[in-house]
Amino acid sequence: MKGKGVVVESGMMQLPDAWQWLLMVVTIPMVWGGHFYAQTPSYSQHFIVPAYYNAAFAGVRSGHRLVLAMRNQHPTFLALARTYSHVALMWDKYYSEYKTGLGLRIEQYYDGDGLRKHIGGAIAYAYRAELAEDRYFRGGIEIGGFTRQYDADAFVFPDQLPSLLDKGTADPTEEVLIAPQTRHWDIGGGALFYTERYYFGLGLRHINYPLTSIVRRRIEESRVIGLPMLVALQAGRNWSWGSRLYREGFVALDLLYLQQGPIIQAQGWMRLKWRYFLSGMGLRYTKTGIDALLCTIAVQRRQWLIAANIDLTLSRFGWSNGGAAELMVVYEMVPRKRIRSVECYSFY
Question: Cα–Cα distance between 167 and 180 in angstroms, integer?
Fold first, then answer.
């Protein structure tokens, strides 16, 4: 029996060391009425990967765009541990002759240091309609498939807790395990309105509430039937200078609101770009108040963009008990003929 962390999923839990418990309570699981609400990984640099939350952003740029995104959450900055890591490879492109954007995503993430492993991918389709001069609306849909693998031997179930606390060893559980892994379809969609200066977007993921539990339960026994739907509200405004095709720089304000089950977070960013360099600072808010200070710095040269971010925890747990680091590498193939009306809003 491995018992290293507290993770509850439809009745499953694991008991952690003190520092792991602090991290997981803040960033991974959420217990609400005795049930677990699994969470979709969240990127602080959402303005680089807006299509991750909203399928309508697929192909918002005119050239082939390839993004490698990595995020690692760890308990301290002095002793790194892979308690929650995410890697995603994303591609998208806009096809002007069809007014269509296509996107593809492959991703893998771990939590509980291997307690669960999630791997899958999705394809996105978006259609652009011109409402008026330099004003556009986009609608998108995303369909994906995922596999979740569980280290079932590492879990401690609620009916095992009395014996574990009394004797130090857990009696066999009476929970019925369906399988050590689950497979499911995942459906999402979104809408986007944008101009050269601002944008508003609404994205939905897990519309079909995919079943991810490995424990057999009747619906009336649990309020958590599937993975909760993720609702993402996105908005931004920029003030740029230079020519329309080759902007020398800009100041941008970006906002992101996420809600999944009872979990709510909001991010507010102020970013500045001057020629090849981009920097920004933001704050992440949760129900308990300000959660983290977000800092990003990026370098863009020709087709390449490299952006790094760090989350500094400001909650009562303190910065030394949690945080996160992100790295994003973007390669964008600039088309021979630029389509200015497609690249209205400058994310970077």
Answer: 27
From the list 227, 288, 279, 286, the residue with the least C-alpha distance to 256 is 286
Total domains in the fold of the chain: 1
Angle value at C-alpha 126, between 137 and 347, nearest 5 degrees: 70
Helix (H) or strand (E) holding 204: strand 198-205
Task: Measure Cα distances from 114 to 7, 11, 103, 108, 154 in Å.
Answer: 12, 19, 29, 12, 10
Residue type, 137: F
Per-residue pLDDT of 78-94, as tens digits, reads: 445 556 789 999 999 99
- Strand segments (E) across the chain: 31-32, 35-36, 65-74, 84-95, 100-111, 116-132, 135-150, 181-194, 198-205, 230-242, 247-260, 263-274, 277-286, 289-301, 304-313, 323-332
Residue 178 lies in a domain: yes
Helix (H, G, I), strand (E, B) or coil at 263: strand
Q: Which of 17, 66, 50, 106 is nearest to 6 (CA)?
A: 17
Question: What is the residue range of 66's domain?
Answer: 18-332
State pTM to two decimals.
0.80
Residue 343 lies in a domain: no
**Which residue(s) pair with 139 in the sheet?**
127, 191
Q: What are phi and psi of 284, to 5 degrees?
A: -110, 130
Closest CA to 78 of 293, 291, 319: 319
Residue 72 lies in a domain: yes
Q: What would the pLDDT profile of 199-233 be if each residue is shown by its tens digit?
A: 999 999 999 988 776 665 544 444 446 788 999 99
What is the C-alpha separation between 222 and 37, in angstroms, rounded?
A: 11
Domain contains 4 = no
pLDDT (tens digit per residue) in 242-282:
766 667 789 999 999 999 988 999 999 999 999 899 999 99
Residue, of 282 and 29, whose pLDDT is higher: 282
Half-sphere exposure of residue 191: CA atoms within 13 angstroms, side-chain side: 3
Token digits of residue 342: 């497609």
CATH of residue 246's domain is 2.40.160.40
pLDDT in tens, 158-184: 777 777 777 777 777 766 666 677 888
